[in-house]
Write a structure and sequence with these properties.
single chain, 220 residues, Glucose Oxidase, domain 1, two-stranded antiparallel sheet
Length: 220
Amino acid sequence: MPEDLVRVFHFFALLADWRDERKKEVLIYIHCLNEILEKLAEKNKVKLELLKYALPQEIKSWILPSSYLKILQERAKEYLFEIDSRGFLSWIEEPVRRQILEAVRASYKRRFKEIKGVSASPGRARGKVKIIETMAEFKKMKRGDILVANMTRPEFMPLIKLASAIVTDEGGLTCHAAIVARELKIPCVVGTQTATKNLRDGQLIEVDADKGIVRIIKKS
């Protein structure tokens, strides 16, 4: 085998190892963070989900003031945050938050007839949209439906086997959805950015994965 080709294979092998290592470190971080949040929730007698709206620099002790808990409750209703050049998070407050949300909602109300993404597995299929965000929604998926998700994960396999096609917001040619779809020969379009926002459960759509296009045939 040519030496140049050997170096290419070696590079991609190292890259795959690096990606696996990065994923492992992220999972460890998430696990440790959840452990801390669970302790905070227990100490303050609040739901764990509420503490996910807190920022690290705001946590000063294990016992959180009631005034701060009220702030978290307000954030849970409608929230937006930004990341500055140093990588620090901060919440976007009124009235800027309201202006941004109104603009976003207005864009969602427009009638989208076509969504574009990356062709990850060729083919064409028609079916009803089923947007899956949590495992609690798995039961609504029926054979022949089109699976629409932000990204797929290994636990999505029972749904993928039922799907006539897959559409995701995120991902590229090497993401989970793309690899599995090619293996099972299911049409798949990834990287649409907006599929879960612009599509609705029950809509009849056509996935043209040869061109990376999702067309809305009939509104739900």
